[in-house]
Amino acid sequence: MSRKTIAVAGAGLELFEAGQGAPLLWLHGGEGFDPRHEFAGLLAARRRLLAPSHPGFGKSSLPDWLDGIADIAYLYLELLDRLDIRQTDVVGCSIGGWIAAEMATKAPERIRRLVMVGPVGVKLGPADKLDIPDIFAMPQDALDRLLFHDPARMKTDPESMSDDELAIRVRNLETLALLTWEPWMHNPKLKHRLQRAAMPALFLRGESDGIVSAEYLQGYARLLPDARTATIAAAGHAPQLEQPGAVAEAVTRFLQE
Amino acid sequence: MKAWHFSENAYPYLPPAESYPSIRVTLPNRIYDPEKGAALYDRFIDEWLIAEEAGVEIMLNEHHQTATCVDPAAPLVLAALARLTRTARLLILGNPIANRRQPVRVAEEMALADVLSRGRVEAGFVRGVPYEIAAANANPVRSNERFAEALDLIIKAWTTHDGPFSHEGRFFHHRMVNIWPRPHQQPHPPVWISTTSPGGAAQAGARGFIQATFLTGFDATRQIYDGYRRGWREAGRGDEVPIHRLAYAALVYTAKSEREAFAGADKLLWYVRANKVPPYFRNPPGYVPVAANVKMLRGAEHPLSAFAKGATVESAIAGGFMFAGTPDQVLAQITKHYDHVGGWGHLLIMGQAGFLEHDETVAGIRTFAREVYPRLKELYPDSAISGLRQGAAGPR
Q1: Average pLDDT over residues A86-91
Q2: Chain B touched by A59 (CB under 8 Å)
Q3: In the Cβ-directed half-sphere of A15, how many Cα atoms lie within 13 Å?
Q4: Is the confidence at residue B392, as pLDDT, over 70?
Q5: Tens digit of pLDDT for each residue in B340-371?
Q6: Which residues of chain A lie closer than 8 angstroms to B293, CB-CB?
Q7: Which tens digits make up the pLDDT trace of B157-202?
Q8: From the CA of A237, how many Å to the nearest CA of chain B?
């Protein structure tokens, strides 16, 4: 997988690229993008996979002016211009789904088909109950139980990571907080704009996802004119990590329809 | 040398610590009995008044959603003290301005209290400890930047007297800033800053603010003060940093006998022992730099949290977190710390905590004021210079 840095609006964006064919823009979740992950290879075997690290994630820089998800959506629309891609399929996971939704409301014509994997970004429930649990106010083991179907298998030990990898993990979490702190994990305006996102869309959720509930996913999907939902078995909030084969299969099948 | 009596206004009547995960942020307030709370406010205010009577200045602070400090709106208590006291300086340390949404409102509060006290306010500003983040719903990322912008805006609001100015900054926006009243002191109340990093201290030094540091012991305090003195000199304020620009907060208890003093001092350790806070509130993402978090993931520990686990009076004194004993012992401990770190001109006395009762608190204040304070003032006059090498004849 090739890696390069592209400057957009003051951000140095780390961009991973692999494979041939029609473009597929992959927008990672809070954990960042790691080209060693199995799903990346599976998708790159079939498509031209483009996976940027969001500003403040991975090795991408974080400009001072940037503090919101919509800011990133504009950066990526500009990135598509730079890459001379008029239209692309997009897969967004968690906050990557939120970025994709913002892009889809701002420039729906740039997205051919859209896949949302455990997406956040809208507020559907009552004011006195968080739609998305407060991941910054719980012990790590409780968070792991919300994130994963099989926490014991998915847990990573800091001991096994280099200082550089640890620094990326810490910085990813910091940027996640910056972007999602308030309003918590959503843009109040987004649900009034999503009717513009009329491209065919598939909303996926791991069946054990403790972050994004089945009800939330259904409600989110209903805000788009042409969206359906599906479930990935034996997976949590990051099914692409726990069930890379099933996710690659579901994504590919939907994009080929 | 000035000494300040500081009380956190804790509410100590709590169930066993094993029964709750955190004394801060999430502890249900059904535990708080407003009648007992009212009696505590009366008592703590009385103790401040006794400190004033004994010639000691007054310091208060602010925390939120916690039993360790039931003063979530320190400017209100400051206003009460402004009317109840006559002579003492009134230090609020501090206003958590990285978490306050309206810095101009903070400028107004401080100006009001300054007028009410006829110019006795010392206005301290803090970024806020990490466990304030959740209570304030403040973004933990870029809080240093918010702090800096808020402080500049507050000082400008205090010192602008010819009608409104506008501020369109990175974090705060105002089109009409024109506060009434303006401060009593000119150009404005002394500004205090609390920081625990040498870099932050260097910035405070460059601005000439009064720098306070809390329970940082020997070596960390020296590094912070070195940062301050470096910032002061590099900004062209001269080689000599007066000691009255530097403050140190320690647990302090003085009594006639060592046995009595250590018994009182042991009760002060409630401060560190009771502060049960889980990691997710103690260290929200972005509060400390990435490199510091990497070190923590590798097992590094903050010196104070390492100390808190097995805190004893003896270890607290050895670590420079506490000055306790007979007047002679307290004076010797202070002198040792003073010499090690290069000298400071304000002793912030954490003189009440947990179950240290009223009589004990008052005895501690009075014994210190009578037996230690006059000697401190004589040894370390406000004109003394911080950062001189021991035995050196002049400034470095």
Answers
A1: 98
A2: no
A3: 20
A4: no
A5: 999 999 999 999 999 999 999 999 999 999 99
A6: 170
A7: 999 999 999 999 999 999 999 999 999 999 999 999 998 899 999 9
A8: 20
Whether residue A234 lies within 8 A of chain B, CB to CB, comes out as no
Query: Which of A160, A164, A166 to mutate against chain B (most B CBs within 10 Å)?
Result: A166
Q: Cα distance from B311 to chain A (closest Cα, Å)?
A: 25
CB of A130 within 8 Å of a chain B CB? The answer is no
Give the residue from chain A lying closest to B278, CA to CA. A139
Average pLDDT, chain B: 95
**pLDDT tens digits for range B91-142:** 999 999 999 999 999 999 999 999 999 999 999 999 999 999 999 999 999 9
Q: Which CA distances in Å does B285 have to A210, B139, B142, B147?
A: 21, 9, 11, 17
pLDDT digits (tens, 9 = 90+) for A92-142: 999 999 999 999 999 999 999 999 999 999 999 999 999 999 999 999 999
Please tell me what DSSP assigns to residue B277. -
Chain A nearest C-alpha distance from B287 (Å): 9
CA of B290, closest CA in chain A: separation in Å? Answer: 6
Q: Closest chain A residue to B145 measured between Cα atoms?
A: A64
> Which pLDDT value is given to residue B389?
54
Write the residue in B26, B170, B285 that is nearest to A136 by C-beta.
Answer: B285
Q: Residues of chain A with pLDDT > 70: what percent?
A: 100
Where do runs of H (alpha helix) occur along B235-353? 258-268, 270-273, 279-282, 290-297, 303-309, 313-319, 327-341
**CB pair distance less than 8 Å for B285 and A67:** no
Could you tell me the two tokens for B339? 């010499």
For the record, the structure tokens of A158 come out as 């800091």
Q: Which domains does chain A have, with CATH numbers?
A: 2-256 (3.40.50.1820)
Residues of chain B neighbouring A138 (CB-CB closer than 8 A): 280
The interface pTM score, or ipTM, of the predicted complex is 0.95
Q: Report the residue of chain B nearest A159, measured CA to CA.
A: B298
Q: What local confidence, expressed as pLDDT, does residue B304 receive? A: 66
Structure tokens at A257: 């329809």
Per CB-CB distance under 8 Å, the chain A contacts of B141 are: 174-175, 177-178, 181
Measure CB to CB from residue A167 to each of B134, B137, B290 and give the nearest one: B290
- How far apart, in whole angstroms, are the C-alpha atoms of residue A49 and residue B139? 34
Sign of CA dihedral B196, B22, B269, B244: positive
The domain B2-386 belongs to what CATH superfamily?
Luciferase-like domain (3.20.20.30)
Query: How far apart are alpha carbons A79 and A229 in whole angstroms?
Result: 29
pLDDT > 70 fraction of chain B, expressed in percent and rounded: 97
Beta carbons within 8 Å of A37's beta carbon, 6+ residues apart: A240, A241, A244
| Phi, psi of A246, deg, nearest 5 | -65, -40
DSSP 3-state of A22: coil
Residue A43, min C-alpha distance to chain B (Å): 32
Q: For chain B, what are the domain ranges?
A: 2-386
